[in-house]
């Protein structure tokens, strides 16, 4: 069964825009068996340029039902159907996002008539719905209205079906004997961490994805490396944990790889970050660096798996920032360090360079390891519309993450109390720094440093 669907919207971004009209034609592969069309009140003004394109005005949707009022009908008419649309990602993501605002996980198999048309009817100048239908002599009534575009897509889909039957199920190579493909169909198309298990139940691979179902299908479809073929042959089951937030998924993935040591994970398997880079000032105000074994309660600038790794990093810092080898505990002497004789140290070791100028370079050397705030909370997406994820950094140390319901509001204490403790290490700190550098989060809340938040 199929449902050919088209939506009109207030814009192109599902996260910030809303649906203004929806049309659904349920199809059994031969003919239309059910129909649902409706204007939708987007609860916001429709931009003039959108009204010019679609003809849908604020007055037209003023008394139309809200999405929540037609949501049950949409679930019922699309139940057990493949979601078909022209550029399916657009329509599907808008509907899925509307359901997410209702804390409902809407999930359907999808089929795109743009991709299918390119495959079965190659060589056309354009595959936009209007141009494609014009090339194939398919009439479109009420262009840029949901019912008109959806009905034209129905006629296009029927033509494509006549050229080649569409398979609603997928064949996956490399699956273990006895693996149930229905497990794949039940997987969520949401953000989180997934676990691939062997026949004994052991986790053999852990990963994260913005779309768990799509990512696992990528794993299982046409493996090209020896490792992938071998891993696929050993998969007997799949489990997952939803996070909503990509940052939390990255942190949980890193934590689980170190905890479970899956045989097919190579990255992030370092489990012991027992050596740290420490900084302290001497009586003359100069910043000293040292690599020492981390003890309970210590708060190093960053951490390493071995002492050698830490010292190599310290040598790199000293060379790149003209730091004193003696003040970095890399050269044991009471007088000038070796770099001073090469004019690479400015004399901090013997008091020739003022502490202020030396410390400025020392702080620059460790800046890549530091956060913008010593203690702060990261608030981001949760696993449902009324939930938020929370990540806690205390005194520049990653403490863990949690989730909180926002329907009744929350205080800083509430945010901190929801945190589930996790292990701090260099990988986790790097994940957080890199994510904050490349991605927007909902909110960052600086908080007062404390010796014992958790």
How is the topology of this model organized?
Elements: E1 2-9, E2 19-27, E3 32-39, H1 48-54, H2 58-61, H3 67-78, E4 82-85, H4 88-100, E5 110-112, H5 113-120, H6 129-135, H7 146-163, H8 182-185, E6 192-197, E7 203-209, H9 212-220, H10 226-233, E8 237-242, H11 246-260, E9 275-281, E10 287-293, E11 302-304, H12 307-320, H13 338-341, H14 355-366, E12 376-381, E13 387-394, E14 397-405, H15 412-417, E15 420-421, H16 426-438, E16 443-446
Helix pairs in contact: 5-7, 11-16
Walkthrough of the structure:
The chain has helices at 48-54, 58-61, 67-78, 88-100, 113-120, 129-135, 146-163, 182-185, 212-220, 226-233, 246-260, 307-320, 338-341, 355-366, 412-417, 426-438; strands at residues 2-9, 19-27, 32-39, 82-85, 110-112, 192-197, 203-209, 237-242, 275-281, 287-293, 302-304, 376-381, 387-394, 397-405, 420-421, 443-446. The protein has 454 residues and is an alpha+beta fold. The strands form 4 sheets. A 5-stranded mixed beta sheet has the order 3-2-1-4-5, with helices on both faces. A hairpin with a 2-residue loop joins strand 13 and strand 14 (397-405). Helix 5 runs parallel beside helix 7 and helix 11 (246-260) packs antiparallel against helix 16. The longest helix is centred in the middle third of the chain and has 18 residues, at 146-163. The radius of gyration is 29 Å and the shape is elongated. The two termini are 52 Å apart. The relative contact order is 0.07.
